[in-house]
Amino acid sequence: DAEITQSPRHKITETGRQVTLACHQTWNHNNMFWYRQDLGHGLRLIHYSYGVQDTNKGEVSDGYSVSRSNTEDLPLTLESAASSQTSVYFCASRPGQGGDEQYFGPGTRLTVT
Amino acid sequence: GNSVTQMEGPVTLSEEAFLTINCTYTATGYPSLFWYVQYPGEGLQLLLKATKADDKGSNKGFEATYRKETTSFHLEKGSVQVSDSAVYFCALSVSGNQFYFGTGTSLTVIP
């Protein structure tokens, strides 16, 4: 079955370190998204991509970057981790627009100490 | 702009009670509307959706009707079960690929 996976599921890192969270989908969807989930804020969009070599900033992109070298993967990099980036991160993909749903990964819980 | 407002939680109900979670939206253009559910420790899963005015989405006993005149998409279930305990998110999508999510409503159903 097609799926979307994230790794690691849990990560503890220190302030100032670079961290990369992986996202891999096997649906062959062009559209991929990264969100962070924090209590009281719901889901906030960090970055998104509409296809290979395409990346766009979302609502809370400062301190994060993504790259899209193939259809299946959209890794999220925290350039210099900060305590404010402690959160649960979700990757999602979507086949198209309009009524198409987004499919979510299981999430990565990141703690920055 | 585009935004979703949903009722504050947490909501606690007894088993077999009636559930309503309110959701209203603001959108440029003609949005599609969604309800997602998140069980503890998991990602979001689509619960139901509606793509045009007056459509009713339904799944697992949950229903929501797309009301353009009141810009609402309230989630309802006639008789909740303990297994319905989760966080529920209302969301919209307009032209383009972005989703806009509400802040989520936590539901706890007690036996």
**Cα end-to-end separation of chain B:** 41 Å
Quickly give the structural class of chain B: mainly beta
Report Rg of chain B: 13 Å
Work out the number of β strands of chain A: 11
The major pleated sheet of chain B works out as: 6 strands, mixed
Q: Into which percent range does the helicity of residues of chain A fall?
A: under 10%
Quaternary state of the chains: heterodimer
Number of strands of chain B: 12
Weakly predicted, low-confidence segments of chain A: none
What's the helix count of chain A? 0
Distance between the termini of chain A: 37 Å
* Unreliable residue runs of chain B: none
In brief:
The complex is a heterodimer of chains A (about 110) and B (about 110). Chain A has strands at about 5, 10-15, 20-25, 30-40, 40-50, 55, 65, 75-80, 85-95, 105, 110.
Report what the structure shows.
The complex is a heterodimer of chains A (about 110) and B (about 110). Chain A has about 110 residues and is mostly beta strands. In chain A, about 0% of the residues lie in helices and about 50% in strands. Chain A contains no helices and 11 strands. The model of chain A has no long low-confidence stretch (mean pLDDT about 95). With about 110 residues, chain B is mainly β. In chain B, strands 2, 5, 6, 10, 11 and 12 form a 6-stranded mixed β-sheet that branches. In chain B, strand 10 and strand 11 form a beta hairpin. The model of chain B has no long low-confidence stretch (mean pLDDT about 95). The interface of A and B includes residues 41, 58, 96 and 102 of A.
